[in-house]
Design goal:
The protein is mainly α. The chain folds into two domains: 56 residues, no CATH class; 111 residues, no CATH class. Helix content is 60%, strand content 0%. The chain has seven helices and no strands. The two termini are 34 Å apart.
């Protein structure tokens, strides 16, 4: 999205790729999962809003770049759900014993979590870029103080909402008839 808006920062850094090795973060991708921590992260793809095309504001461009991740997760959810329905209808996929079904459900759950979690308006998650677009100038100082405490707030939010995320996933799967 940033490239589409005119910023080629990530392209020059070799980060516009689906090669997973380019996105590995030593702590978030390697160490935490090895220690059994049930969450992690990849290196963020950098963007520079100053380089956006002149017809888009830095705030709006930042919000569009931030929305690209969660929107892609929702699109993947739709594709995975469609694949489940097609497999079920065409080959009679046994929903109770199929390894393929279990894998598709795992990918569906992962993308539901990523779409929801990344919309939380706490840095470094994408949601804070979206909320930033709506913060009035009169509240900018308080917003900056909030952003400075973002990583601490993120850990607090993770522990508070971790059980709620499981309930949201169960609800979504129930609505889709996959529970």
């Amino acid at each position: 999205m940033a490239l589409y808006l005119g910023d080629d920062t990530a392209k020059h850094l070799g980060r516009v790729t689906i090669n997973p090795f380019v996105h590995i973060d030593l702590i978030g991708t390697v160490l935490l999962p090895l220690m059994g921590v049930p969450f992690g992260w990849a290196k963020p793809v950098p963007f520079n809003p100053i380089r956006f095309k002149k017809d888009i504001s830095m705030k709006a461009g930042g919000a569009l770049v931030a929305l690209a991740g969660p929107v892609s997760n929702v699109i993947l959810c739709i594709l995975i759900y469609t694949a489940i329905l097609v497999l079920k209808a065409s080959i009679g996929l046994d929903l109770n014993s199929s390894g393929l079904y279990s894998m598709l459900i795992m990918f569906l759950r992962m993308n539901i979590v990523l779409a929801i979690f990344n919309m939380i308006p706490i840095p470094p998650l994408d949601g804070h870029h979206i909320l930033n677009m709506f913060i009035p100038l009169s509240l900018r100082h308080y917003w900056d103080v909030f952003l400075a405490k973002g990583q601490i707030l993120l850990f607090v939010a993770f522990f508070i909402f971790s059980s709620a995320i499981g309930e949201v996933i169960a609800f979504v799967l129930g609505v889709l008839g996959l529970s």
